[in-house]
Write a structure and sequence with these properties.
By secondary structure, the protein is an alpha+beta fold. The chain has three domains: 82 residues, Alpha-Beta Plaits (2-Layer Sandwich); 97 residues, no CATH class; 175 residues, 3-Layer(aba) Sandwich (Aminopeptidase). Helix content is 35%, strand content 24%. It has 13 helices and 19 strands. The strands form five sheets. It has a six-stranded mixed β-sheet with strand order 15-14-13-12-11-19, sandwiched between helices. Strands 4-5-3-6 form a four-stranded antiparallel β-sheet, with helices on both faces. Strands 7-10-9-8 form a four-stranded antiparallel β-sheet, covered by helices on one side.
Length: 492
């Protein structure tokens, strides 16, 4: 029988339960005490100071008995605490393992409740604050959160030279505003506190999330900017080529180990350029810098790579085309398509001198700057290109279809797949830069069925599609399949 079960069986209807064995033991103890007292009394009573010693002994015994009765009533018969009831406020502890009296900081993220444990009245928060690296600082912070019924689901620590940055995933009452949480953290010693709403995806622990991002980067070089953005939160990522298009001076080189400057980190790109990551609202920690550098190093070691899956599509006329991912290895075939395109088609796509179009291909086809889909015939000739380009924290889509293959639905098909990739990558919107006279591109954007914003500046039309307004089914060509396009007359 465990001690907890013993506490339960010792009471019945709120009163103590007596047993005959306890009574026998108490009687034996009483007789023994009387015999000892008689012997002591006879020994002391025959002495010169015997009466005085007996009186003093009686007073001490009476005082001891009274203290024993008071202590037994105060502590011995208190009702046992049940784990099914509410604990006092001073005993409140954050979620997870039992709190430790020391300020020992865990080196790995502590998993908390799953998404199923979040009720409709709770709110998930991501919070980052800086505390002094001294015993008791983290305990004071946890106590302040517990007093406001804020549960700690996970905790990561980022050691600094003059303190420690603690990153929490919190679950608090829905009626508790973020300002109240930050005020409590400030009173507990936290500084430079930052908070934002979180969702169920943040419940995944950091090691699992990093491994998943590494796996995606290993399969596709175009995933690196997206992996960095998901790893570091809202940030602007730019890839600067080592040799800019059109000549000129390239970006300043960075050492192999990279450079960390408060809210900006610069890393050496595998192809020789510079990868910059900027997050103005929150400085980067050395731990985040090390994780980002590890992802870039993984990408550099694996070299150029793209998924090799493809889809076979049947045009209304009965011709088959293949849609697949392409990269710089297909630059020669893309240049050959340029030569077959008319000046008007190239001008609508590149908005500049058509003689310079070939110089853009190395940048457009590089997985470092986005993803490119190609439509090619059964003979292997490329007749259409669709680009999804990472433009800082925005995403651009662009299409080019050879003149003889226009108005067959190829551009619309490529655009739908590019938008599906953008949704899969977590982009909030995509924009296309074209001309008002390019009715084919305008029709393709309208065919997405998404809310569109139009901006016209000096003959240039910018169409922005908001991706968070409606779900888009993923049609990414990562596995072989066969589809049939729509009826004739669909424009690209």
């Amino acid at each position: 029988m465990t001690p907890e079960m013993a506490d339960v069986t010792r009471t019945k209807h709120g009163r103590p339960v007596h047993h005959w064995r306890r009574d026998v033991v108490e009687l034996a103890a009483l007789f023994t005490a009387v015999a000892v007292a008689d012997g002591v009394a006879n020994l002391i009573g025959h002495g010169p100071d015997g009466p005085a010693l007996l009186v003093i002994s009686a007073i001490v015994l009476a005082a001891t008995a009274g203290f024993h009765v008071w202590w037994a009533r105060r502590h011995g018969h208190a009702p046992p605490v049940s784990d099914t009831g509410a604990r006092p406020a001073a005993e409140t502890r954050p979620a997870g393992p039992a709190a430790q009296p020391t300020d020992e900081r865990p080196t790995t993220e502590r998993p908390g409740a799953t998404a199923d444990g979040v009720t409709g009245t709770d709110t998930l928060w991501r919070m980052r604050t800086t505390v002094k690296d001294e015993p008791g600082s983290l305990a004071a912070l946890c106590t302040a959160l517990a007093e406001r019924r804020v549960d700690i689901l996970s905790l990561q620590t980022h050691p600094l030279a003059d303190g420690t940055v603690d990153e929490f995933l919190l679950r608090g009452p829905g009626a508790l505003p973020s300002a109240e949480i930050t005020r409590a953290v400030a009173l507990a010693g936290g500084t430079s506190t930052w908070m934002e709403r979180a969702d169920a995806h943040d419940l995944v622990d950091a090691p699992t999330r990093v491994l998943g991002l590494a796996a995606r980067t290993a399969l596709d070089a175009a995933e690196l900017p997206l992996a960095l953005r998901q790893l570091l939160g809202r940030c602007t990522i730019r890839s600067l080529p080592g040799r800019p298009v059109g000549g000129g001076r390239g970006p300043e080189p960075v050492p192999v180990e990279g450079v960390l400057e408060d809210t900006v980190m610069r890393l050496r790109a595998p192809e020789g350029g510079v990868l910059t990551v900027e997050r103005p609202y929150l400085p980067f920690t050395p731990t985040e810098f090390a994780r980002a550098r590890a992802l870039v190093e993984l990408d550099s070691r694996l070299g150029p790579r793209i998924p090799r899956g493809h889809d076979v599509l049947t045009l209304p006329e009965g011709d088959d085309i293949t849609v697949r991912r392409v990269d710089t290895g297909d630059q020669a075939a893309a240049k050959a398509m340029h030569e077959r395109c008319s000046t008007r088609t190239l001008g609508m796509r590149y908005h500049g001198p058509v003689g310079d179009t070939d110089r853009y291909l190395n940048h457009l086809l590089s997985p470092r700057f986005g993803r490119t889909l190609a439509a090619q015939t059964t003979s292997g000739r490329i007749v259409g290109l669709g680009h999804l380009l990472w433009d800082g924290d925005e995403t651009e889509v662009a299409l080019l279809v050879e003149d003889d293959w226009q108005r067959r639905g190829i551009g619309t098909e490529l655009l739908g797949r590019l938008v599906a990739m953008a949704v899969e990558a977590g982009c909030e919107s995509v924009y296309a830069v074209t001309q008002a006279s390019n009715t084919g591109m305008v029709a393709a954007m309208r065919g997405l069925g998404l809310p569109l914003d139009y901006q016209v500046e000096e003959g240039t039309l910018v169409i922005t599609a908001r991706l968070d307004a409606a779900p888009v089914a993923s049609r990414s060509p990562y596995g072989p399949s066969r589809e049939r396009l729509g009826a004739p007359g669909r424009r690209d």
